[in-house]
Amino acid sequence: MSDTKSTPAPDSAHIASRPAEVSRRDFLGEITLGALGVAGLGGAGLTYQYFSPNVLFEPSTTFRAGNPDLYPLNSVTFLQDQQVYIVRTPGGFFAVSAVCTHLGCVTQWKPEANMIACPCHGSKFEPNGKKIEGPAPRPLPHFSVTLTADGELLVDKLQVIKPDQVLSV
Amino acid sequence: MATSFQTALENLRATRVWKSIFRRGPAITNRTRSVAVFGNLFLHWLPVKVREKSLRVRAAYYLGSLSFLLFLILVITGVLLMFYYHPAAPNAYRDMKDLRFVVSNGVFLRNMHRIAAHLMVLLVFCHMFHVFYRGGYKPPHEFNWVIGVVLLLITLFLSYTGYLLPWDQLAFWAVTVGTNIVSAMPIIGSKVRFVALGGNIVGENALLRFYVLHVVILPLLAFLFIGVHFWRVQKDGGLTVRSKDDDRKN
Fold first, then answer.
1. In this predicted complex, what is the ipTM?
2. Would you state the pLDDT for residue A6?
């Protein structure tokens, strides 16, 4: 320590028995730095919270897709407003996102080729969302489909489910 | 005529007001000229003396100076555009159209802002390539090179945030695609996108956030870093003009 000269000689033996010697200046400096660090971290956290909105005025992510009878067997129906395909197979219903996993363009259902194609960069998908051809990095995600109490299809675009989960009606 | 003008100037310099602003005497000797530069807020970070060589066009093709000139044009035209533009979803697109078709000289200012912005990105890249191929990143200029890279990023972010403000299809999809690229970052990607947009889609919050970044935060950062950049040019020994003499010294 640099300021040992402030320590009186008679006490030196007593002080040496202590584990470490910290000057008052260093102690206060460290306390101040620590407090500033805690305040800085807290401030950063509060700022992050401030910038994450709690209430959003965005379109709802769940929507009613109507009565299941609207969709014929072995059909792919594009819901323009929701950017979702409702697919009905003999096994049941599932909902596939129409937003390309490459850069977010809206894909198109091509019944003559039996595939979903992206007009922007040419990605191709099977009707169940499985990728046939890039540049899309991932298959199209499936959204959860349930039935409402009055028997309509309810799609939740925030809930991504595994492709093998099918709603049989 | 000349003598009467000089007399008038001398009389002006003798006034109390003039002396209160310019506290040094007239800049007639090398020393008083240096003192005049040092004592002026707007000049003090510029070199007192400049080598004639570094003023030649070939020294840097004025690429940095032209980038700065474009930045000043962008600040002035941008502030003027702010008088008619509301950063809100119902207004933004109409205000942009109004600026083009209704406001007197609005189309001139808007196009000046747009074209200057495109040119600035181009010239900043040219400036960077020029400095790079001249070896301007080598000691003692490493720090200023890093400042320059930060300025390049600020320029690109200014350009990108400004791109959303017309609130048309081009703007919407450019920002949708760009923020989707951000969400590809591992772990924090979707959170960063959420905070950058203030939501899950490019909407009202995103427009306001990009506007605040575009007109306040990024320009202030740009001014700060431009100040340091210019100051360091002088502190690091002037423009990087490599001549045969310099090579021999190495």
1. 0.71
2. 53
Q: Measured over all CA atoms, what is the biggest interatomic distance in chain B, rounded to whole angstroms?
A: 76
Which residue, chain included where needed, has tokens 């040419």? Answer: A122
Cβ within 8 Å of residue B35, ≥6 positions away: B24, B27
Of B184, B173, B200, nearest in space to A105 by CA: B173
- Containing A93, the helix (H) or strand (E) segment is strand A92-97
Task: Please tell me the distance in Å from A86's CA to the nearest CA on chain B.
Answer: 22
Interface with chain A: mutation pick from B170, B175, B176, highest number of A CBs within 10 Å? B176
Which domain does B6 fall in, by range? Answer: 2-37
Buried b / exposed e along B81-99 (16+ C-beta atoms within 10 A): beebbebeeeebeebbeeb
> Among B174, B203, B175, which Cα is nearest to B92's?
B203
Beta bridge partners of A87: A76, A94
Determine whether domain A62-161 maps to CATH 1.20.272.10. no
Domain count, chain B: 2
Q: Are residues B128 and B16 in the same domain?
A: no
Q: Tell me, what DSSP letter sits at residue B214? A: I
> What is the per-residue pLDDT across B106-140, written as a single tens digit (0 to 9) for each?
999 999 999 999 999 999 999 999 999 988 888 88
Tell which phi-psi region holds residue B62, choosing left (phi > 0), alpha (psi between -120 and 50) or beta: left
pTM over 0.80: no
Using CB atoms and an 8 Å cut-off, which of residues 165-204 of chain B contact chain A?
173, 176-177, 180-181, 194-195, 198-201, 203-204
The answer to whether residues B124 and B228 belong to one domain is yes
Residue spans of chain B under pLDDT 50: 244-245, 247-250
Taking Cα atoms as reference points, which of A68, A122, A128 lies closest to residue A97?
A: A128
pLDDT of residue B1: 59
Establish if B190 belongs to a structural domain. Answer: yes
Whole-angstrom Cα distance, residue B67 to residue B82? 22
Confidence check: pLDDT of A1 > 50: no
Same domain, B29 and B140: no
